[in-house]
Amino acid sequence: MINSKKLKILLFTAAMTLFSAHSAKAASYTVSSGDSLYTVGKLFNTNTYTLKADNKLSSDIIYPGQVLSVRAKDYTVKSGDTLYLIAKNNGISLSSLRKTNNYWTDYIYPGQRLIIPGTSYSVNSTSQTHYGVIPYTDSDLDLLARLVHAEAQGEPYKAKAAVAAVVVNRVQSSAWPNTIRDVIYQRVNGYYQFSPVLNGMINQAATSEDRQAALDALNGYDPTNGAQFYFDDSTKNTWLWSKPVALRVDNMVFSY
Q1: For residue 25, pLDDT beyond 80
Q2: pLDDT, tens digit, for every residue of 100-150?
Q3: Are residues 135 and 248 in the same domain?
Q4: Residue 162 burial (CB < 10 Å; 0-12/13-18/19+)?
Q5: Which of 23, 30, 46, 66 is 20 to 30 A from residue 39's alpha carbon, by CA?
Q6: Is the distance from CB of 115 to CB of 27 less than 8 angstroms?
Q7: In angstroms, how far is CA 234 from the centroid of its own chain?
Q8: How many whole angstroms separate alpha carbon 256 and alpha carbon 243?
Q9: CATH number for the domain harbouring residue 105
Q10: What is the tally of structural domains in the chain?
Q11: Is residue 17 part of a domain?
Q12: One domain, residues 84 and 142
């Protein structure tokens, strides 16, 4: 049976999927030398998981000249427009506008179609709800990214995504609180579940890679396949070691 929390999440997701199918616009982006799914995702304010799903990619490898379908809006040039003004009015950099369109001259003309890439992530926008595998706000994303930074700084990207996935898995489970914030700040028998909350490292700013790992997890990427715990392999806690191991990345252990 599906519990009420999971049913609500499924209904939210189904509704937003239907909405996106009718409202999201697809544009084409040609991969350049040095591009990766991560850098393309940053350019279009999306993530690796979504790019792979939209393009039916089975691996993270892309190559120069490859054409990717991306979610972006079109802009039709009007009389009096310049590339600088278009970039400024859409809250993006001129270099991003040029790269997105592979357009390196200053001449544009009325009626010309341009792709507008996504704007940079901002922690000032906190109220809008997004829908991945669980509903989340921008402030939830920022908090999750800061936990990733505190727990997996210097670790491989897979470990960062796995840390975020553990939080997502707890939110989805009826055994834990049902929001990202409540999971991260939860105390059991007076003890915080995540040490960065206690030592204050949760307040450190996240990097763009930390945010990307959090976004990927929120959109369904889970290298642990359902883990709800993680710990350093130096721990002597026999209770943690008694749990089935889902994944090991360097010194980090993820378990069910």
Answers
A1: no
A2: 898 999 999 999 999 988 743 333 445 577 878 898 998 899 999 999 999
A3: yes
A4: buried
A5: 23
A6: yes
A7: 29
A8: 6
A9: 3.10.350.10
A10: 2
A11: no
A12: no
Percent of the chain with pLDDT over 70: 86
Confidence of residue 2 (pLDDT cuts 50, 70, 90): very low
- Confirm whether 203 is domain-assigned: yes
Full residue range of the structural domain in which residue 231 is found = 129-255
Query: Beta 26-30 vs 245-249: how paired, if at all?
Result: unpaired
Rg (CA), the chain: 20
53 assigned to some structural domain? no
Among 251, 56, 49, 69, smallest CA distance to 163 is for 251
Residues 171-195 have pLDDT tens digits of 999 999 999 999 999 999 989 999 9
| Burial class of residue 166 in the structure, from the number of CB atoms within 10 Å of its CB (0-12 exposed, 13-18 middle, 19+ buried) | buried
Question: Cα 222 vs. chain centroid, distance in angstroms?
Answer: 12
CATH value at residue 205: 1.10.10.2520
CB-based contact 230:252 (threshold 8 Å): yes
Q: Which of 137, 140, 136, 79 shows the shortest CA–CA distance to 111?
A: 79
Q: What is the pLDDT of residue 217?
A: 95
152 lies in the same domain as 112 = no
> Based on the number of CB atoms within 10 Å of its own CB, is 103 exposed (0-12), middle (13-18) or buried (19 or more)?
middle
Domain boundary pick from 90, 117, 144: 117
Question: Tokens for 62?
Answer: 């892309």
Q: Does 141 lie in the same domain as 84?
A: no
Answering whether pTM is above 0.85, one says no
